[in-house]
């Protein structure tokens, strides 16, 4: 039988980081089995709909590379279908009307048992604990219980992959499947993700919408990789895995029962690892796409593609997020802003005198400047003015950028060009003299 999985978010907000794991596991199982991965939007709770949420979910899944098969399925388009099944249950005597809503009459005797692929275990309930429940609300929309059973039966979903918060509703679903005479799918209930303080994951743990992580400069690959490991350890314990490797290795039988903990610092670390191992040309494209995304689709004047191409290899070891690129490099195309505190931190006396000599040395040096000569000249000048070579290069850095941290100095100067470099050192001198 063909494996069909689905991701079934409720459009009550932008796709949350926790939802990525559910979507990813469903995607992996479908791909691993050459099956189908569907997107079903559960929009039957009309009061909780948030405008733009569906668009965000679709766009974010696309960005993550979790491409779904077929069209987006909207439960609100299927209202009639649920009503027909509610009617059928009414006719069967398995349901009754109460104040405009349709209620399912639970069977109170015996036990309900289902098999769960997570933990390879049987989950059992005493039916006596189950109260009657609403399947169709007075507004004519189904509750989650009826919509889930009808849709996953008609869509032939197997396995049903969803969060463990649904386990308590399982007896309701099993009873509905049984009463409608349908086969019960296999379930895989994923352990609930917690924050470091072991409470349910929330904003205060740094968990937010995926689009916010995207704005912060996280890579889709790093997010997928990190989220995959929240509840799953691959057999060989590897930590860095591509989507294709995950497809090969993922198995619901290896998903833990214990609750994983979301740690935003670890996600940042992993993002940095991804940036470092990305080839320069690809990283350049990612940075440009990221800046365009931040600008709402417009291509900014700066950095140009050429500037990003030159700067990418210089900064890739120093950044953890794509957003770190700009503060580190924008002195190149922005006017540089000097700050007395940054000069004072150098701890160098006679700054004016030394800057004067630096300007003279730069102006005398044969153009185009060449790395080795440049270094030799300034080591010599450092000796002459009695400061260390390290201080000399740091002073140059501050003079040309206004910052104490930049990409490697000589490479940065090459991007700036001789003329601009001299202009900036002169500007630094006037700033200090003013
Ligand atoms: N709409 C439900 C939720 O967002 C989906 C549960 C399921 O996958 O069946 O929690």
TrEMBL record:
- What PROSITE patterns does the record tag this protein with? AA_TRNA_LIGASE_I
- Swiss-Prot/TrEMBL keywords: Aminoacyl-tRNA synthetase, ATP-binding, Cytoplasm, Ligase, Nucleotide-binding, Protein biosynthesis
> Which of this chain's residues are annotated to bind ATP?
203
So what does this thing catalyse?
A: tRNA(Glu) + L-glutamate + ATP = L-glutamyl-tRNA(Glu) + AMP + diphosphate
Q: What class of enzyme is it?
A: ligase
Q: Quote the EC number.
A: 6.1.1.17
Of the GO CC terms on this record, one is:
cytosol
Q: Where is the Aminoacyl-tRNA synthetase class I anticodon-binding domain?
A: 294-429
Instruction: Please cite one Gene Ontology biological process associated with this protein.
Output: glutamyl-tRNA aminoacylation
**Cellular location(s):** Cytoplasm
Chain ranges of the Glutamyl/glutaminyl-tRNA synthetase class Ib catalytic domain: 2-98, 102-269
The family note in this entry says: Belongs to the class-I aminoacyl-tRNA synthetase family. Glutamate--tRNA ligase type 1 subfamily.
Function, as annotated: Catalyzes the attachment of glutamate to tRNA(Glu) in a two-step reaction: glutamate is first activated by ATP to form Glu-AMP and then transferred to the acceptor end of tRNA(Glu).
Which proteins does it associate with, and in what oligomeric form?
Monomer.
Write the protein's name.
Glutamate--tRNA ligase
Q: Which source organism does the UniProt entry give?
A: Candidatus Daviesbacteria bacterium RIFCSPLOWO2_01_FULL_39_12
